[in-house]
Amino acid sequence: MELTKQIEQAKLLIQLNQSGKSFRECSTILKCDPKATLQYLLENDFYFKKCNNPKCENPIKHHSNFPTQTRNLDGHESQCKDCKRRYRKKNKKHIQKRSKEYYQENREKLLADNAEYQRNNRNTRNIYHKQHRKDNPSNYRESDKRYREKNRDKLKQRYEDNRVEILKYWKERNADPEVQKQKQQSGKAYYEQNREIILERMKQYQKDNPDKVRAIRARRRARKKNATVGWTDHKIIDDLYSEANRLEKNDNIPRHVDHIIPIGTQKEDAFVCGLHVHNNLRILTEKENLCRPRKIRSMDDIDE
Questions:
Q1: Rounded Cα–Cα distance for residues 147 and 127 (Å)
Q2: Pairing relation of β-strands 60-62 and 255-259?
């Protein structure tokens, strides 16, 4: 009997609350504790509030449609988000002016309070912002782009000052299997969604940067033949390909960046195999390069 009475009372509480009665009015009608009434409604996600704006089109709403306010017992403001949004839009200039005046009058106090809050809640704020950025990447994309363009020199200097720590951080992060899996999945999803755009962009890049493309392909071929080493100066190699491209444009004679000692593998019938390093490269015309032997099978094949 007691359980049936409690169930009926709970149903009546929900009906009263959803009809526009506040939790205090409901507790008065049902003769129960206001805090216990509010706790029951919140825990079961049944709590509704009535917006105090008389012009509100739909005043009775779920509590999630009201801004949070820790000073109130129920943790929400008395005016709904839609009404506050309309008010801010209608009075945008007035609000900006009032906020600016308040900031100028209380600048030192606001800065001190903000600094103290950040010191006391650094970990909490970092966790929140990290999660928010992860959940809303589109909200940050444009703002991040504007910040980078506006602070290019500052960011460059920061990188130079902390280069070792930054490289160490990214090396450790990229070595994490979970991060590698996430990057692979996100990269695959992005490619599938933007395949045509990516292919068109790659095609245009190859057309605009033939020297860089040739350098990348040469490096890939050398890597497949195990002809690369850690101490290779890739900048000098890239400059050689750029110079070959410049000479080719000047006189319309095709140029090749040639390996003085051709690269190869042990499986190939070669007397000696070279490496893909800057001091084993030179610029030749296409005709000169094609006349050379592709493999060195004896000392006679090595150029003087």
A1: 22
A2: unpaired
